[in-house]
Structure formats: structure tokens, C-alpha cells
Amino acid sequence: MERISNLILIDNNLRRRAAISHALSAGHIHVEPFENISELASAWPRSGVVLIHDEAGAIDDLIDNMARHGDWFPIIAFSEHPSANRIVQAILDGAIDYIAWPIVADELNATLARAIDRAEHVGNAKLREVMARARIDRLTRREREVLGGVASGLSNRLIGERLAISPRTVEIHRANMLNKLGANHTSDAIRIAIEAALVN
Fold this sequence. Notes:
By secondary structure, the chain is of the alpha/beta class. It has 2 domains: 7-123, Rossmann fold; 138-195, Orthogonal Bundle (Arc Repressor Mutant, subunit A). It is built from 9 helices and 5 strands. Strands 2-1-3-4-5 form a 5-stranded parallel sheet, with helices on both faces. Helix 3 (58-69) crosses helix 5 (105-136). Keywords: DNA-binding, Transcription, Transcription regulation. It holds the Pfam family GerE.
């Protein structure tokens, strides 16, 4: 079982942050505690597993920061007495595991080792997805619709008919969409759409 080299702990509760850091250091895990994502962003780590207290929007915010830095770290979310819906939502948002606090060091160690193992399989794909989604977020609604049409193999004329706009207007949206995505060719835009899970 691989050792955890670095645990990035994000929790705005000072007491809990101290308790988790203490419990993990007893298990020989190096912990870098941060109060929030802004604090993490100002001292961006090179590697590690993120243990983040699950609060509204926290995982999305963390993933946005990862996209900006071009890094993806495996995310384990935690909270006290989480509901099944909350756990499912965190996983859908991008966490690869979820734990209920309090947790004993041995159990947390095993969870971290599992997360690292899983991260090796999903890491690069997840980073590509995060980066692609960040690019697609720059598009207007109309540019996304044009991208969807392009990814479906439709011509400018057919996209125009579907969206009730002229082929020339489609062309303008298409050029803007390619520019915002940083895509040189239509095939690059389609690849980005696929990586962002916008199309299958």
C-alpha cells in the first residue's frame, strides 16, 4: 500500500482542523492545513490528496481552482453525519470518496490509500475533463448550442435551421466558440466537448 506523501486539509473550523491534523500526524501522515480554498490558492501545492469539509459549493470552487492551475488532486469530502444525498452530490461534483467525521486514523489511512489508488486510474482523465469544462464555461449559451451542433456533425446550414438563425450567424458563433476554446480546428472543439462530457 502506497504511503500518502501529502494531505491537503481544507476546513474553516479551527478546532476540527487541529483535531484532524493531530490524528493524522499520529498516523505519520504529513498534513498541510488550510482554512479555505483562497488560502490554498495562494500557496498552491505540487501534489497531494485533498480532504475537504463538504460545504455548499466547496468542491465546485476547488475544482475551478484546479482547472486554473492545471492540476488535479484526488478529493475526499467529509462532514459530520452526512446524508446519502449529500454523499452522492459530492461524488457527482468530483469527489472520489466521502468519509463521516469523526474517523479513526487507521480507517482514514485506508481511505486515503484507496483514493490514491483510484486517482491513478482517473487522474489524467479527470484533469482533462476539468480543463475542458473550464473552457466550455467561457462560452455563451448560443456558442454552446453551436458547439453541440458541430459535435453532432451538422453543417452551418442545419445548425442555423435548428436554432432559427442564418448560416452566416452560425459561422460567427462558430468562430467565437473556437477562439474561446483555444481550438485551432473543429476537431479540437469536438474533442473538448467530449472531454467535458458535453457529448458522448
